[in-house]
C-alpha cells in the first residue's frame, strides 16, 4: 500500500479536503478506474493548524438529523473544532467522495498523525 503524507499547516479546509479526496480516489494516477479501489493511504500531519477564511469559524453550522420528530441537532464549527478537529476534516473529505458503496471503504484509508 502506498502512503502519502500531507502537511496541513496554513492550508484552508476545503482545498485540503479536495486534495485528499483526489488522492484517496486515485484520480492522480494514470491507471485510474472509477470501479477499482486504489491502494493509497493518506496521512495528514498538523491537522490542528488549518486556517479558516472569512467568518466561517464562528458562523458555519453543521446539522445532523436523526429522523425523529425534533431530532435535528446543530453545532457550530468552533464547537466541533475544540473537541475533535480531525472529525471536521474527515467529514469534509467524506462529503467530497462519491455517494456510493465505495465511500465507506475509501474513507478508511484516511489517517491522522499525532
Automatic annotation (TrEMBL):
Q: What's a single GO BP term from this record? A: translation
The protein's matches in InterPro entries, at most eight in alphabetical order, are given as: Ribosomal_uL13 (IPR005822), Ribosomal_uL13_bac-type (IPR005823), Ribosomal_uL13_sf (IPR036899)
Q: Does the keyword Metal-binding apply?
A: no
Q: Do the record's keywords include Secreted?
A: no
Matches recorded under Gene3D superfamilies: Ribosomal protein L13 (3.90.1180.10)
Q: Write out the entry's keywords from A to Z.
A: Ribonucleoprotein, Ribosomal protein
One annotated GO molecular function: structural constituent of ribosome
Pfam families cross-referenced by the UniProt entry: Ribosomal_L13
Which GO CC terms are listed, alphabetically? cytosolic large ribosomal subunit
Homology family = Belongs to the universal ribosomal protein uL13 family.
Name assigned to this protein: 50S ribosomal protein L13
Task: Tell me which species this is from.
Answer: Candidatus Yanofskybacteria bacterium RIFCSPLOWO2_12_FULL_43_11b
Amino acid at each position: 500500500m502506498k502512503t502519502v503524507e500531507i502537511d496541513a499547516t496554513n492550508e484552508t479546509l476545503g482545498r485540503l479536503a479536495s486534495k485528499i479526496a483526489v488522492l484517496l480516489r486515485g484520480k492522480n494516477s494514470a491507471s485510474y478506474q472509477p470501479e477499482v479501489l486504489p491502494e493509497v493511504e493518506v496521512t495528514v500531519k498538523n491537522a490542528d493548524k488549518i486556517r479558516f477564511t472569512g467568518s466561517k469559524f464562528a458562523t458555519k453550522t453543521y446539522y445532523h438529523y436523526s429522523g425523529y420528530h425534533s431530532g435535528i441537532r446543530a453545532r457550530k464549527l468552533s464547537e466541533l473544532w475544540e473537541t475533535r478537529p480531525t472529525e471536521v476534516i474527515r467529514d469534509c473529505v467524506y462529503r467530497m467522495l462519491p455517494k456510493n458503496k465505495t465511500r465507506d471503504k475509501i474513507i478508511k484509508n484516511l489517517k491522522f498523525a499525532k
